[in-house]
Amino acid sequence: MTTYTWTAPTRRGFLFASAGLAGLGAVFATDGARACDKHPGPGAPSEGRIAGPDEPGEPMEIEGTVYRPDGVTPAAGVVLYAYHTGVDGLYAATPGPPRLRAWFRTDPRGRYAYRTIRPAAYPERRFAAHVHTQLWSDTVPAQWGTDLLFADDPLLSAGQRRESEALARFANIRPLVRGPGGVWRGVHDLRLKTTGDHFEDNTRHGLQG
């Protein structure tokens, strides 16, 4: 299995291109990328955990629906790979894939849900805390989904808020509501693109296991 050396992403990782959001789905994954049998992508559940129950941090539950590029039709059977930092703001203490990550597969209604902890911003606090998402299937090209950002995060810029608002119902800056047991709860709907994205070597861990 490939070993990855982690570096903090650039601003590019937080800009979500709106071009190419309408139309029919494509059939080839970017760079020929496909989920391999080293990870549970093809057989992943629609609901599950990213962080275990003993993980330090405030518990958080996120649910959502993945839609086809038309923004209306739920996308069933799409692999959603999500990962984020721990309370220390790091993905991992040593080189390698992120420690807090998981694969899910949307149900017949395009839905998914996961439980984890609320991530922290990177130690240098240049970027707001976030959850990265990647999506693909046999008929959906491997692509970045919008990063989940949190409405109450003081590190969010005015520009990020405008970009999120422009996505309308697919806005990626989401409010969280604290429920019983102190669990933060939120919704993050995702809209597939017709085209795939290029993944740098240190961001291909979802596809490669």
Automatic annotation (TrEMBL):
<dbReference type="InterPro" id="IPR050770">
    <property type="entry name" value="Intradiol_RC_Dioxygenase"/>
</dbReference>
<keyword id="KW-0732">Signal</keyword>
<dbReference type="InterPro" id="IPR015889">
    <property type="entry name" value="Intradiol_dOase_core"/>
</dbReference>
<dbReference type="GO" id="GO:0005506">
    <property type="term" value="F:iron ion binding"/>
</dbReference>
<feature type="signal peptide">
    <location>
        <begin position="1"/>
        <end position="29"/>
    </location>
</feature>
<protein>
    <recommendedName>
        <fullName>Intradiol ring-cleavage dioxygenases domain-containing protein</fullName>
    </recommendedName>
</protein>
<dbReference type="InterPro" id="IPR006311">
    <property type="entry name" value="TAT_signal"/>
</dbReference>
<dbReference type="GO" id="GO:0016702">
    <property type="term" value="F:oxidoreductase activity, acting on single donors with incorporation of molecular oxygen, incorporation of two atoms of oxygen"/>
</dbReference>
